[in-house]
Design goal:
heterodimer, A: 8-stranded mixed barrel, 8 strands, B: mainly alpha, transmembrane helix (chain B), Membrane protein (chain B), membrane (chain B), transmembrane (chain B)
């Protein structure tokens, strides 16, 4: 009789411990499921809000009247600091929501997480579209935080990529793609990118993101070359590539 | 654990259910606001730049 009670009590304690462990495991599973929702949905919501506000602000500064040009003095080329808005990247091959992306200086996490295309400042400082030559290099998230480059693998040779700044539309065409490379392959953002079809200096554009989707194992790069610069008119009529 | 929490919530069942729901929402809020933003950079899902090994 006594041993039966003692045995029952021990069994009860073991069952309670197992039950607690089971509940903790279920909880862990739920937390991970919620984390997936956070990564793939909530960060997009937050990023879209941030990018929308900053994009509106950039357009407002553009519409503010420019200082009257003094005769004989060239307008100074703007110097951009990390975080500054540069313009907008238009990629017609992307899904509708991702076709227009705000471009900001810098590729640190704080900038990229706000749903923008970040301009490389290192390892190679990016050239700007208006520079006489060089490579305008940008990175953006593949998933979460706006996922602006989710469809980067859709781009193929000949697709247009347009950079909109205050005064110009810079129309590029894709010249080459690299579907997968090491994350240490910094040559893909060099002034004359390694592995690209380009052999000499020119006015290039490079987009990078991570691949395959939902991981950061490798990097993907898309290279484009400048074909045309259209001035912005009073109605900001987009170039034919975007119509 | 959940049984223990349920037994220690005050009031009749509907009130307990309401408090439990609020507790769940509070936990989700803390996760979204503090825990996930802290944990995310530590996980290898969001690096999109090429670099010499520093975080991207």
């Amino acid at each position: 009789m006594g041993t039966a009670i003692r045995g029952g009590r021990r069994r009860g304690r073991v069952a309670a411990a197992l039950g607690l462990m089971g509940e903790l495991l279920i909880t862990l599973g739920l937390v991970l499921a919620v984390f997936v929702g956070y990564s793939l949905w909530w960060t997009d919501v937050v990023a879209a809000r941030a990018a929308g506000l900053q994009g509106d602000r950039l357009r407002q500064t553009w519409s503010a009247p420019a200082a009257a040009p003094s005769p004989g003095v060239e307008a100074p080329v703007p110097e951009y600091q990390a975080g500054d808005g540069v313009g907008f990247l238009h990629v017609p091959a992307f899904e509708k929501d991702d076709r227009t992306t705000l471009i900001r200086m810098g590729t640190n996490t704080d900038v990229l997480n706000e749903g923008v295309a970040g301009v490389y400042e290192e390892p190679y400082r990016s050239a700007m579209p208006w520079d006489a030559e060089g490579n305008f290099t940008m990175a953006a998230h593949r998933d979460g935080h706006g996922a602006k480059f989710h469809d980067l693998d859709r781009l193929s040779e000949g697709d247009p990529v347009v950079v909109e700044t205050r005064d110009s539309w810079y129309v590029y065409r894709v010249a080459g793609t690299l579907q997968q490379t090491s994350k240490y392959n910094v040559g893909v953002v060099a002034p004359v990118p390694e592995g690209s079809p380009f052999t000499g200096p020119g006015r290039y554009l490079t987009l990078t993101t991570c691949t395959p989707v939902y991981t950061s194992r490798y990097r993907m790069a898309v290279w484009a070359t400048l074909v045309r610069v259209d001035p912005v008119d009073d109605h900001r009529t987009p170039p034919p590539e975007l119509r | 654990m959940y049984g223990w929490i349920w037994r220690h919530l005050p009031g009749p069942s509907p009130v307990r259910a309401l408090i439990a729901l609020l507790l769940v929402l509070g936990v989700v809020y803390v996760l979204f606001q503090y825990v996930f933003p802290w944990a995310e950079p530590l996980l290898p899902f969001g690096n999109v730049t090429v670099d010499q090994g520093a975080g991207g």
